Amino acid sequence: MRARDEVAADAAGGGFLAPGAVLGVLGGGQLGRMFAQAAQSAGYEVVVLEPQPGAPAAQVAPRQICHAYDDPAGLQRMADAAQAVTIEFENVPAAALQWLDSHLRLAPHAAAVAVCQDRAREKALFDALGVGCVAHAEVGSEAECASVAARDLYPAILKTRHMGYDGKGQFRVEQGAQLLDAWRALGAVPCLLERRIDLRSELSVVLARAADGAIVHFEPTRNAHRDGILFSSTAGAGAVEPELARRAVAAARRIAEGLRYVGVLCVEFFVGGDGELLANEMAPRPHNSGHHTIDSCDVSQFELQWRCLVGAPLPQPRQHSAARMLNLLGDLWFDAAGAQREPDWRQLLALPGAHLHLYGKHEPRRGRKMGHLCLTAATLPEVEQAARRACACLGLQAP
Ligand code: ATP
Ligand code: MG
User: Fold this and answer.
1) For the chain, which domains are there?
2) Residue 122, ligand 1, Cβ within 6 A
3) Is the pLDDT of residue 122 over 60?
4) Residue 12 confidence (pLDDT)
5) Contact yes or no for 306/38 (Cβ under 8 A)
6) Which of 89, 224, 255, 323 has the fewest Cβ atoms surrounding its Cβ within 10 A?
7) Binding site membership of 226 for ligand 1 (Cβ less than 6 Å)
8) How confident is the model at residue 364 (pLDDT cuts 50, 70, 90)?
C-alpha cells in the first residue's frame, strides 16, 4: 500500500489512483451502496456523504460524513478525506458540485451533471447533437401556458424540469385548455411539456467514458415501466432488435462525447410506434436498468464507475449470461388487506439463476425500491421462464 501523500499527489495530477486511495460518494442510497461494494472489493476505501444516518450506502462503508449535501463543513470533510468523488444521484445541489470540482477530482464533472438536472437542458443538448427526442416546449409562466396551449403537442405530459424521478413531478395533459391547471398543480415551477407518444418499447444504454475519451458500453436493455417506475430490464441476445441497439449505442456515445463526460452515463430511449428512436433522459451515474450487469457481465456498471474515478483502464464488458432484473418495490411487503408481510425469500432463492439484492432499507413503503432480483441463464427464453416463476412467487403480474 502506498503512502497517503503519494496517493494525493497522483489525484491532483489526474493520474491513476491505486487501491488504498479513498473514494467519496455523494448520496447514501442503493446506488452508493453498490458502488461502495464494488470499489471496496478492489481495495479502495469509501466514504459516504449522506445526512441520513444508517442509509443503504452508509451501512456498507466504514465512514459516513453525516451532513447535508450542501453544508460547507461536510464538503470540507469530504475533501480532506477523499482523493476523488463521485455521485449516486443527480440532484446534488449545483453549488456543492462546483465546490468539489474545484477542490478535488470529481467524476462526472459538475457541468455535465447540471445538464442532467434539467429536462430542458437535456432536450437542448439532444437537439444540438442531432439526437432525436419527443416534441416539447418549456412552460415557466402563465404567459407560456397560454402560448404552449395552442401548440400541436397534445395529448402530452407536463414534467417539472428539476428533481423528477420514478414518474414523480409529472401530470398528464389531454388538451391545451388543461395546461394552466396542470402547471399550477405541479407548483407553478419551471416545467417541460412533452408530446405523449405511443410507445412500442423502451430501452436504455449504460456506457462509461474515461478522462482520455475512451468509451465502453453495455448492450442496451429493454425496459418495462409500471406506474412510471421501472418494473423490469432485460438484456441478452434478442432483448433489443440489433439495428435499434446499434443506433441507441451510437446516440449515447455522441451524447457522452458532446458533454466531454467522464464516468458512467445512462441514456433512456423511447421507441415510437413507427420504430423511431427518441432519447428520453439521461442519468449521470449507474442506472437501475444496469443493475443486471453485476450478475450477467464480467465487469459491472459499478466497477466501471470506480474505474473511471481512479483513472484505471476501461475493459469492454462481456455479457456472459442473459438476464432479467425485477425491481422489488415496498408494495411486496403488504398483502391484499394492507397488512405487512415478508416476501417468500426461500421460494425465490430456489429459482435457478436467481440473484437477490436487498438494499438494507428497514421501512417498506409503496413504490419504494427495496431491492432487486436478477435472473440469469444461458438464453433469454430460459430467463423469461424463471422471471415468470419469480413473478408468480411474488404475486406480481408477469410482464
Ligand atoms: P426515472 O428518473 O425514474 O427514469 P422520471 O420520473 O424521470 O423517471 P421519465 O423517464 O420522464 O420519468 O418517465 C417515466 C416513464 O413514463 C417513461 O419511462 C415512460 O414509460 C413514460 N413516459 C414519459 N414520458 C413519456 C412520453 N412523452 N410519452 C410516452 N410515455 C412517456
Ligand atoms: Mg426515466
Assistant:
1) 4-106 (3.40.50.20), 135-195 (3.30.1490.20), 199-394 (3.30.470.20)
2) no
3) yes
4) 45
5) yes
6) 224
7) no
8) very high
